[in-house]
Design brief:
- The chain is of the alpha+beta class.
- It folds into 2 domains: 245 residues, Up-down Bundle (Alpha-lytic protease prodomain-like), CATH 1.20.1510; 82 residues, 2-Layer Sandwich (Alpha-Beta Plaits).
- Helices cover 61% and strands 10% of the residues.
- The chain contains 9 helices and 4 strands; from the N terminus they run H-H-H-H-H-H-H-H-E-E-H-E-E.
- Strands 1-2-3-4 form a 4-stranded mixed sheet, with helices on one face.
- Helix 1 packs antiparallel against helix 4 and helix 2 runs antiparallel to helix 6.
- The protein is elongated, with a radius of gyration of 26 Å.
- The two termini are 36 Å apart.
C-alpha cells in the first residue's frame, strides 16, 4: 500500500474555529482599561489623590486579567494547526478564563481587606473627587461591557449561521441550542465579569459616597465594599467551577453521554457499551472513546458511526467492538472518525 493511500484517513484535530470578534473585543477593552489605568495613576500622583491612585492600581489587576483572556484567544488561534496539541487549542481559552477567575478572586480578597481596614481606621474622604472618579469609572466600564456584549452577540450569530457540521441546517443548530447544548464562551465570560465587577463596584461606591456626603455615614463606604467583595467572590467561584470542569474533563454527567449510549444500545442484537469516555474539545464539540460488545458478528465501526452521526456535537470518536462469543477478547476493531468538522 502506498503512503498516499493513507491520506484519506488523515485529518486535522482542530475542533474549534475560535472567535475573531471576541478576540478583537477583548483586546479593545484591554487597551481602554490600560489607558484609564495610566490616566488615573498619573493624575493621582499629580493631584496627590489617594483615591485616584487606589482606583488606578485596582484597575491594573483587571487589566492583567483581561490581558490574559486576550492573549488566550491569540495563542489558541496561533497554535490551532500545531500537531503537538492532540485535540486542538480550544482549552487555551479555558485556561485563560480559569487564570482570570483566580485573579478575580484575588480582587475580591483585596476589596475585603481594604474595607475592613477602613472600618477599623476611618479616613477622611474627598467626596466630590471620589464621586467624580466613580462616575468616570462607571462610564468606562459601561462602554467596555457594550463592546464585549456586542462581540458575544456577533460571535453567536456567526457560529449559528456558519459553524454547523456538514449537513446541519440553521434550524438544526437552533434545535440544539433550544435543547440546552449551547455552551458559553468562558474566556469571554471571564473578561466580561472583570468589567462587570468594576461597573458594579462603581455603582456601589457612588451610592455609598452619596450617603456619606449627604448624611455623614462614613461607615457606608467600607460596608458597601464588603458587600461588593462578597458579590465578586461569588462570581469568581462560579467561573472557577465552570472552567475547572472543562480543564479536568469532568463531562460524564453531560446529556451527550446518555445520548451516545441510547444511540448504540437501541438495537435488537443486545449491543451494550461497556466502556465510554467523553470529553470536550470545543465549545459544543465532544470526542469519545468507547468499547462495545455485541451478538451481531456483522456490526462494523462504520455502522456505529452512522448511529452517532445523529448527534452533531460528537466530532471525533474511537470505537472498539468485541464479540460476546470472543471470550479471549483479543481481537478488536478500531475506527477513527474521519468525518469530524471544526466548529466555533
Amino acid at each position: 500500500m502506498h503512503t498516499n493511500d493513507l491520506s484519506r484517513w488523515a485529518h486535522e484535530h482542530s475542533f474549534h474555529a475560535g472567535s475573531s470578534t471576541a478576540e478583537r473585543g477583548t483586546f479593545a477593552v484591554l487597551w481602554i482599561t490600560l489607558t484609564m489605568m495610566v490616566v488615573e495613576i498619573a493624575a493621582g500622583w499629580w493631584l496627590n489623590s489617594m483615591a485616584l491612585l487606589a482606583d488606578g492600581w485596582h484597575m491594573s489587576s483587571h487589566a492583567v486579567a483581561i490581558g490574559l483572556s486576550a492573549l488566550a484567544y491569540s495563542a489558541a488561534r496561533r497554535y490551532a494547526k500545531d500537531p503537538r496539541f492532540a485535540f486542538g487549542t480550544w482549552k487555551i481559552e479555558i485556561l485563560g478564563g480559569f487564570a482570570s477567575a483566580i485573579l478575580l478572586l484575588g480582587v475580591a480578597a483585596m476589596m475585603l481587606i481594604a474595607s475592613l481596614q477602613r472600618l477599623a481606621d476611618p479616613q477622611p474622604i474627598r467626596y466630590v473627587e471620589a464621586i467624580t472618579i466613580a462616575i468616570l469609572g462607571l462610564a468606562v466600564n459601561a462602554g467596555c461591557a457594550l463592546i464585549l456584549g456586542r462581540a458575544h452577540t456577533q460571535g453567536e450569530n456567526h457560529r449559528r449561521g456558519h459553524g454547523h457540521a456538514h449537513g446541519e441546517t440553521v434550524g438544526d443548530a437552533h434545535d440544539r441550542h433550544a435543547q440546552g447544548t449551547a455552551q458559553p464562551d468562558l474566556n469571554l465570560r471571564s473578561a466580561y465579569l472583570h468589567v462587570l465587577t468594576d461597573a458594579a463596584t462603581s455603582v456601589l461606591a457612588i451610592a455609598a459616597l452619596l450617603g456619606g456626603w449627604m448624611w455623614g455615614w462614613a461607615w457606608l463606604d467600607p460596608a458597601i465594599g464588603i458587600v461588593g467583595a462578597v458579590l465578586v467572590a461569588v462570581w469568581a467561584r462560579g467561573l472557577i467551577a465552570a472552567t475547572a470542569k472543562v480543564l479536568l474533563d469532568r463531562e460524564m454527567d453531560h446529556p451527550v453521554v446518555d445520548e451516545i449510549r441510547a444511540a448504540i444500545e437501541a438495537d435488537p442484537h443486545a449491543t451494550r457499551v461497556v466502556d465510554l469516555h467523553v470529553w470536550r474539545v470545543g465549545r459544543e464539540a465532544y470526542a469519545c472513546a468507547l468499547t462495545l460488545v455485541t451478538h451481531d458478528p456483522a456490526l462494523t465501526p462504520d455502522q456505529v458511526r452512522a448511529r452517532l452521526a445523529a448527534h452533531a456535537e460528537i466530532v471525533h470518536s474511537t470505537i472498539e467492538i468485541q464479540d460476546y462469543d470472543d471470550h479471549d477478547c483479543t481481537i478488536a476493531r478500531e475506527r477513527h472518525d474521519p468525518l469530524h468538522q471544526s466548529r466555533g
